[in-house]
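Re-running the complex after MR caught last week's input typo. The corrected sequence lines follow. Everything else is unchanged.
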Amino acid sequence: MKRQVPLLITFFVGTLLIVSIFSPATENLGEEFSVFFDVIAVFAFFLGGGNLLRVHLTKISRKREDWVYSVVTLVGFIVMLWAGLFKIGNEGGIAASVTEESSLFGMVFYSVLIPLQSTMYSLLAFFIASASYRAFRAKNREATILLVAAFIILLGRTAFGTMLTSWMPPSLSLAEIPNLAIWIMNSPNLAGQRAIMIGIGLGVVSMSLRIILGVERTYLGDDGK
Amino acid sequence: MTYLLRVLLTLALLTGTAVFAQGEPPAVDTTLVDTTTVAPPAPVTGLTGKDRDNDHGHAIELTWTPSVDDLENPSGARSVLRYRIMMWKPTEAYRVDTLRQMYDMVRSNYAPIRVYKPLVDSALILIDQGMVDVSALPFEVLLPEGINRTDAPAEMMKYVRKALQDTLAAMTAQVDISKDSVKVFRSNFLAAVESLPEAFNANGPSSGHGAWDSVGAEVPGATFFRHAGSKEEVSPDFLPDYADLYYRVDAATSDPAVYTASDVCGPVQASGQWYNSGRTVVLISVIIFTILTVVFVQQARRGKELYVRPLAGIEAVDDAIGRATEMGKPILYVLGLGAASDIATIASFTILSRVAKRVAEYQTQLIVPTYDPIVMTVAQEVVKSSYLDAGRPDDYNEDIVYFVTQSQFAYVAAVNGVMLRQLPATNVYMGKFYAESLILAETGALAGSIQIAGTDEIAQIPFFVVACDYTLIGEELYAASAYLGGEPVLLGSLKAQDYAKALFVVCAVAGFLTLILADATGAHWLAQFKQWFMVAD
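Corrected-run output:
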């Protein structure tokens, strides 16, 4: 019974939402059902906060390895919670918006969190460089094709690439590096992407059918055996 | 010195340009000013209207032939600068608009009054009892110039009392604040809305009871307009179904007073459909796919051996867990940034279940940091169940799956920290990933972990391919969950997926060849082939 009720709900809601795709009269049903999800999500925030406190307090109390980081996490969590709940430093008092820049919450958010997030994001540039270095080593035939294609696209997006083949007659315009780069992006690249997308679409339908029919039930903490 | 001179010259040039640009007033281009009277343009012709197909109603589509004097027509006077779409509204429709506005006003005023009136009342009682501290009031009182908080408290409170009384009077003067008044306004409005179709049907343009109302405009050269009204009765754009609607299109010129109206088109009625015929091809595909799935699942249940293509990434999972066991290091499992309702995350739960079971059997350490509290709750249940299945419930620890944060890059920082401090032997990334994919995978590669990734986010697949040892591309993520278990029923659905893919390839090749043949032979029916596969919005 513990498993059957959720499976029945899944089957009923899943079937209803499939029907709604084909019936204009019920096309907004998906959005309306997502409200249920939002309601559950609100309660889940308490779960998240509770888990965070429990995990880090345990770590601190048992002086586990790197427990100092847990102190930093908890201090950050409590300060932001306190600043946000009581609108500390808000000019308009408790009725004002929590994201007001003059408030303590706003100040920490804009002056600490945003720069830290930007820093993490900017690491991506360096990681792209190191990943490209590994990917573009011509170890085998596929990697060589990748290297050549990447080289053409890189050149094609620069003024130097345009200049290199600008002398070519109009009849050979397809062989100009910028046009070659566009062709690679729009033809082989797009064809590959679409093939993957078709596969993903079928995978999603297959997975959804498995869930709706109750064949796949691991998400309930039950592998169906 | 030369360098300084160059800089100074450049600055002087820039400043000079700006100064000259400011100094010279722009010349008036008199050629753009049309001082002549605009002649009435030729009207729009052939105006037709019909209900929009495959929708929930409340929408009409109009088509017409542009005016001969359209701006886009070089052979005409080119005086038509836009087309104004007009709809006939009977007097009753205007009354409904007024009732809607009144209902909106009552509704929007009712809530704040309900909240603030008791507060104001209690504040007035406190002031009458002799309270002199302005800051103790539940309001931020804005004091006018000339009155300071340091003034005599009694004088200031007199001002505050007057201000509160005036505010309350102004609030209650606008609307009757009783709850019943909202109900009365609502029922009056809804009754009027219900009678709208009848009003439209009985009072066409020939009756003279009503007026033309603009419902939109189109640019020169346009031949189509969709009047998409709202189905919400409280919306000002509400367009009733099953009501006789009349339209005309005005060819408008630069002079607002000079325009030519087209012939009236109507009556035309909007109505909703129960079935969207534009999605028939999708329905057929879903039915075929469902039949294939059910057939193969049944075959698998009867014990038929099903061959499923091997997935290198999945076969590597067992080796990776073995490696972690031998090294005595943990396995890090990242579920991505998806919500629990994302199919990719659900597929990831299934893979996590298999990984956790194997980890429990090998008694290796598992770390699952999560981004979403709901995902965390489900993952905890999944891992707990896997430990139970493996016969090692005592080894399950609630700290295996834990919540980190819902901030994307803070989550990345935390997971990267785990990678660099605990140096997991294996990192598994399965689910929805965005910009963080490469940061995670590259950090894992630097930490020397074996990495297995799978996502359905196309933009992130190349990053995982580059930085991970094994990558499940797109649908392999969904296939993995079935493949890992090796259960016949799940493999049956995987087999159906492969057959459906083959069917898609056949359709794509057939479409490709048909279009080439249509071009070569000029056969119209061949060119129509692709229309069979078109899907409506």
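None of the earlier attempt is carried over here. Chain B touches chain A through 87 residues (CB under 8 Å). Chain B has two domains: 44-274, 312-486.
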